[in-house]
Design a protein that fits this description.
single chain; 18 strands; transmembrane helix; alpha/beta; globular; carboxypeptidase activity; 911 residues; two-stranded antiparallel ribbon; Glucose Oxidase, domain 1; Peptidase_M28B
C-alpha cells in the first residue's frame, strides 16, 4: 500500500502573466531576474517551484497585479499591420487592439488565454485542438512570428562625453561597441512560437511518414483490406464460380481437335489470350517457343501380320478409332505416339505383359530370345510410363513396340465402356508420348535451356530424351488378333500376365512366332512453334512475388477430361478474379494464370518457361498450382509439396458437396485421404524439381475414363463424367480459395512443420529400402545414411524456432489494434520469403549438380525416378547411385544431399 508521503497532490493554479512578472521597476531593466537564494528555494514546496519555473521566473509572486514600471505588454504583429521595426513605443490603443487580436487568434486555435481571469488556473495546453477545426473553410491559422522589438546598436547614453576624447585621444565614436541585436520576447511570445514550431514539426513529420517511409504504402494496403473484408472476398469468390460458364467453356474447347502446334491449338491459344484481356488483367502476354514435335501421316502407319515367307500381309490392324467427333469437329487425331521414332521393321511377335524391366527379364529367364522381335505390351500395371515400356523393350533387343489398352485394366471387364460408360471401348486407343520425360524434360533438343529462336539445338540422334525404336498404340480389338496368332508359341504366362481380352489363350510367343510388320512414317518438325499464354494480376505489397496457376491447353484429341476440364475451371476462376480486380481489389502478392502448350509431348511449354525464368522463379515464385485432368470422378485428390497440407485441409472445410451433403474435408477424412506425393506426369515437374517452387496438383478423380482417346469428349463429360458440372464448380471453389489464401494472407499459409515431419518419414522409407538391399546396418554395411539423419534433425530444430515468430507477429498486431508497424511489416515480408525459399534451398545448384546423368532435376528430395519401379520418389539421386552399386559415389551423393539439407535449415533462421 503506498505511503501517505507519496500520494498525489494537485499543483497550485498557474499565475497570470502580470502575476508571474510582477516586481519593482528596476527589475524590468535587468537581462533576466536572478535565481532565488538556496534557502528561499528550499522553503517552498517542490510543485510550486516547478510551476513557477515553467514561466522562467523564480521570484515571489506579487498578487497586487500591479504593472511594473517601464513594462510594455508584448504584442504579435498581424497581417494587417505594417512592420517598421520601430524603436518607438506603441500607443495604449495599439496595446489594447493587439491584445484583443492575440486573444482572438488563441480562441481560434482553442488555446486558453493565460491572461484571462477565468482560466488563470488552467494550463494553456490542456485542451485538445478539435479536428473539426481542420476543415478548410474554418481554418484560420496564420503562419507568422510574434512581433519582436529589435535593439539596434547605438552609442552610449552619456551625452556629456559626446564631444570629448578619452585619455588616449580616441573619440567616443571609435569606442562605441556594436552588439548582436537582442530580441525582446515575452513568455507569451515564446509559448506561441514554440507551439507553432511544434505544429510545423508535426506537419513535416507527417509528410515524412506518408511519403518518405513506407507508412503510406501500409495505409493504402490497409485501406484496401478494410474496403474488402477477407471473409467477404472468400464468399464472393465461392458464390461467383458459375458451373454453366464452365460448361460452355468446355464445350468450346472440345469442339475440335487441338494437338500441340496445330491450327486448332493456335485458335484456342488466342481464345485464352482474349479471355485474359477481357478479364482486365494487368498484364497479358503470348510467349512463343520453337520445339521438336512429330505428327502422324495419314497412310504412314501400319501393323500387319505377314505370311509365312514374310512377303505378303495376311492381316492389317484398323489402327484408327471410330469417328465420334461429328462433322463439326473436323478430323479427329490419328492414333500415334508423340516423339516416336520413325521406322519400318519386321520381327516375330512376343507378348511382354506390362513392359517393365522385370517382365522382360522373366522372358529372358524363360529362354525366350527377344532380339529382333516386335514387343506387344499393355498400358498401366507395374510400369505406368509408356515411354519406359518402349525403352525397356529397346534395351531387351526388340526392334519395335506395340502398346494396347487391355479391358482388364480399362475396359468392359471393369464396367460399361464409353460412350455409355467410363471405360475404354473396343476401338478406343490411348495415345501418349514416348519421350523419356524421366530422363529429359521439355524440348528434348534443348535440355537445360529455353527453345528460343537463335539458341543452340541438339540433333535428334544426340539427345537422351528419345527412344530409338518405332512404336504405335492400338485398341484391344486389334490386340486380340495379334494375341490369337501367337497361341502355342513360347510359354504360357503366369496369371498376373493374363489380361481381359476375350477369346484369347495366353501365350508369350517366341522367335518362331508369326512375323509382324510395324511401320511408322511421320512428319518431324525440329522447330515447331508453340504458344504459352500468360495473364497477371499485380500484387500491391509484393508485386514481384507470384502465385502461379497453370494448365496445359493442348490435347491428343478433344480432351474433355485431359486437359480441358482444368482449362475451363481455370478460365472461370480467372474471370472471377478479374471481376474482383475490376472492383478495385488487389492481392498482396501477384497472381499469374498460365496456359501451357505441348504438355502432352513432354511437358514442353511449362519446362521452357521455367528454363527461361529459372533464377527469377527460384527467388520470386511462392507457389505453383496445377490443373490437368481435373474432373474424372467425385473423389477429391491433392498431390504436392508437404507445405500445402494444412492449407488444403482448411480450404476443403469451406467447400460443400451437395451430392454427398457433406463438406469436402469430411469426405476427405472419411476416405482417410491425405496429401499425396507428386509424380512426374504433368506441368508441376519443372516447377517443383527444377525451380524448387512448392507445387500442388488438384483434381476430382477415383474412377477410370477413356483417357487420351477420342471418346474423352464433351458428350461423354456431359452425360457420364460430370452431368451437372457440379464437381467442376466445386474444384473451381477450391482453386479460388487456395489462390486467395496464398496471395492475400499477410503471412503465407505454408506448413513447414509438416515438411519436417514428412522429411523424417521419407528418410525412414529410404532406410528401409536400403536395408532390404542389405547395404545399411550390420557388418556388411556399404553406405552410411547418418549424415542425412543429422541434417534432418537440424531441419526440425530450425523449423521449430522459425515458427515461433508468427504468433509473436499476431500478438503485436492485435496489441496495435490491427495496425502493423513498418518495421514489423518488413520482418513479415522477410519471414514469408524465407518460408518459401526453404523449398528452393533444397536444390543442388552446383555446376553439374542435380541427379547424376539427369542433371535437369535439381531437387534433392523430389524428382522423377529412373525407372518408376518403387512407390515413393524420395531422394532420387541417392537411390540412383545406390542402384549403380558405386559405393564411393553413393556415399559422396549422400554427404552432398545432407549438406544441402543442412544449408536449407541454416538459411531459414539465419540472422
Amino acid at each position: 500500500m503506498p505511503s501517505e508521503k507519496s500520494r498525489y497532490e494537485p499543483a497550485p493554479p498557474i499565475p497570470s502573466y502580470e502575476e508571474a512578472t510582477a516586481g519593482d521597476a528596476s527589475s524590468s531593466r535587468l537581462p533576466w531576474p536572478p535565481s532565488p537564494s538556496p534557502s528561499a528555494a528550499d522553503t517552498r514546496p517542490d510543485h510550486e517551484t516547478e510551476a513557477q519555473s515553467l514561466l522562467r521566473h523564480n521570484r515571489p509572486l506579487n498578487l497586487s497585479r500591479r504593472t511594473p514600471a517601464g513594462y510594455q505588454p508584448p504584442h504579435v504583429e498581424t497581417d494587417d499591420e505594417g512592420s517598421d521595426w520601430s524603436l518607438e513605443d506603441d500607443s495604449d490603443d495599439n496595446h489594447v487592439s493587439e491584445a484583443a487580436q492575440v486573444r482572438r487568434e488563441m480562441q481560434e486555435l482553442e488555446i486558453e488565454d493565460p491572461l484571462s481571469d477565468s482560466n488563470a488556473s488552467t494550463s494553456p495546453w490542456t485542451k485538445r485542438i478539435s479536428f473539426s477545426r481542420f476543415s478548410l473553410p474554418r481554418w484560420k491559422w496564420r503562419w507568422r512570428l510574434p512581433r519582436m522589438t529589435v535593439r539596434l546598436p547605438r552609442q552610449s547614453d552619456n551625452t556629456n562625453n559626446d564631444d570629448n576624447d578619452d585619455e588616449n585621444g580616441e573619440s567616443n565614436e571609435t569606442r562605441t561597441r556594436w552588439r548582436f541585436p537582442k530580441l525582446a520576447l515575452s513568455s507569451r511570445d515564446v509559448v506561441l512560437l514554440i507551439g507553432r514550431l511544434l505544429a510545423l514539426t508535426a506537419v513535416l513529420g507527417t509528410v515524412y511518414l506518408l511519403f518518405v517511409s513506407d507508412l503510406f504504402a501500409n495505409m493504402s494496403k490497409r485501406l484496401n483490406n478494410q474496403m474488402y473484408d477477407p471473409e467477404a472476398v472468400r464468399e464472393f469468390l465461392q458464390l461467383k464460380i458459375d458451373s454453366e460458364q464452365i460448361r460452355e467453356s468446355l464445350r468450346h474447347f472440345t469442339s475440335y481437335a487441338h494437338l500441340a502446334g496445330t491450327e486448332g491449338d493456335y485458335a484456342l491459344a488466342m481464345d485464352v489470350h482474349n479471355s485474359f484481356v477481357k478479364n482486365g488483367f494487368d498484364q497479358v502476354a503470348v510467349d512463343e517457343y520453337y520445339v521438336y514435335l512429330n505428327y502422324p501421316q495419314k497412310n504412314g502407319r501400319l501393323i500387319e501380320i505377314m505370311s509365312a515367307d514374310g512377303k505378303k500381309p495376311i492381316w492389317s490392324a484398323i489402327l484408327e478409332e471410330n469417328d465420334v467427333g461429328g462433322e463439326s469437329a473436323g478430323h479427329q487425331t490419328y492414333a500415334f505416339h508423340g516423339h516416336s521414332m520413325p521406322g519400318d521393321v519386321k520381327g516375330p511377335l512376343i507378348y511382354a505383359n506390362y513392359g517393365s524391366r522385370k517382365d522382360f527379364k522373366r522372358l529372358a529367364d524363360q529362354g525366350i530370345d527377344t532380339k529382333g522381335a516386335i514387343a506387344l505390351v499393355r498400358h498401366h500395371g507395374t510400369q505406368q510410363n509408356v515411354a519406359l515400356k518402349v525403352k525397356a523393350a529397346e534395351m531387351a533387343g526388340f526392334v519395335g513396340c506395340i502398346v494396347y489398352s487391355d479391358p482388364a485394366d480399362n475396359g468392359f471387364v471393369k464396367g460399361e465402356p464409353a460412350p455409355k460408360g467410363r471405360l475404354m471401348p473396343s476401338d478406343g486407343v490411348e495415345r501418349g508420348s514416348v519421350s523419356l520425360s524421366n530422363w529429359v524434360i521439355g524440348d528434348v533438343l534443348t535440355p537445360g535451356w529455353e527453345s528460343k529462336e537463335g539458341n543452340p539445338r541438339m540433333k535428334l540422334d544426340q539427345t537422351k530424351g528419345l527412344v530409338h525404336i518405332p512404336s504405335l498404340p492400338i485398341a484391344w480389338r486389334d490386340a486380340q488378333v495379334l494375341l490369337q496368332h501367337i497361341e502355342g508359341f513360347g510359354e504360357q504366362p503366369p496369371k498376373g500376365w493374363r489380361g481381359g481380352v476375350p477369346e484369347v489363350k495366353w501365350w508369350t510367343g517366341n522367335s518362331s512366332s508369326p512375323i509382324v510388320r510395324l511401320k511408322n512414317e511421320q512428319d518431324d518438325n525440329e522447330k515447331q512453334k508453340i504458344w504459352n499464354i500468360y495473364g497477371k494480376i499485380d500484387g500491391i505489397e509484393q508485386e514481384e512475388k507470384s502465385i502461379i496457376i497453370g494448365n496445359h491447353r493442348d490435347a491428343w484429341s478433344f480432351g474433355a477430361t485431359e486437359p480441358n476440364s482444368g482449362t475451363a475451371i481455370m478460365l472461370e476462376v480467372a474471370r472471377v478474379f478479374g471481376e474482383l480486380a475490376g472492383k478495385g481489389w488487389r492481392p498482396l502478392r501477384s497472381i499469374e494464370f498460365m496456359s501451357w502448350d505441348a504438355e502432352e509431348y513432354n511437358m514442353i511449354g511449362s519446362t521452357e518457361f521455367v528454363e527461361k525464368n529459372l533464377e527469377i522463379l527460384q527467388k520470386q515464385a511462392f507457389a505453383y498450382i496445377n490443373l490437368d485432368g481435373a474432373i474424372s470422378g467425385q473423389d477429391f485428390h491433392a498431390a504436392g509439396s508437404p507445405m500445402f497440407r494444412k492449407l488444403v485441409n482448411k480450404v476443403l472445410g469451406r467447400v460443400f458437396d451437395p451430392v454427398a451433403n457433406e463438406t469436402l474435408f469430411t469426405l476427405w477424412q472419411d476416405r482417410k485421404a491425405d496429401l499425396e506425393s507428386l509424380g512426374s506426369e504433368s506441368d508441376y515437374v519443372a516447377f517443383q524439381d527444377i525451380a524448387g517452387t512448392s507445387s500442388l496438383d488438384i483434381r476430382f478423380d477415383g474412377k477410370p475414363h477413356p483417357r487420351h482417346s477420342s471418346y474423352d469428349n464433351f458428350q461423354w463429360m456431359e452425360s457420364i463424367g460430370d452431368r451437372d458440372f457440379v464437381y467442376h464448380g466445386l474444384l473451381g471453389q477450391v482453386l479460388a480459395l487456395l489462390i486467395i489464401e496464398l496471395a492475400d494472407r499477410p503471412v503465407l499459409p505454408l506448413d513447414l512443420g509438416n515438411y519436417a515431419f514428412s522429411l523424417d518419414r521419407y528418410y525412414v522409407d529410404l532406410w528401409q529400402w536400403a536395408e532390404k538391399k542389405g547395404i545399411v546396418g550390420g557388418e556388411n554395411r556399404k553406405i552410411k545414411l547418418d549424415p542425412i539423419k543429422e541434417a534432418l534433425n537440424h531441419v526440425r530444430k530450425s523449423i521449430t524456432q522459425f515458427e515461433r515468430w508468427e504468433p509473436y507477429w499476431e500478438q503485436a498486431v492485435i496489441a496495435a489494434n490491427g495496425w502493423e508497424p513498418a518495421g514489423l511489416g518488413l520482418r513479415r515480408l522477410d519471414y514469408n520469403s524465407r518460408m518459401a525459399a526453404f523449398e528452393s534451398d533444397l536444390l543442388d545448384l552446383e555446376i553439374g549438380g542435380g541427379i547424376p546423368n539427369r542433371t535437369q532435376f535439381k531437387h534433392v528430395i523430389f524428382g522423377p525416378q529412373l525407372w518408376n519401379e518403387y512407390k515413393d520418389p524420395y531422394f532420387p539421386a541417392v537411390r540412383d547411385v545406390i542402384e549403380t552399386q558405386d559405393w564411393p559415389l553413393a556415399q559422396a551423393i549422400i554427404d552432398k544431399t545432407a549438406k544441402i539439407i543442412d544449408y536449407a535449415a541454416t538459411a531459414l533462421v539465419a540472422v
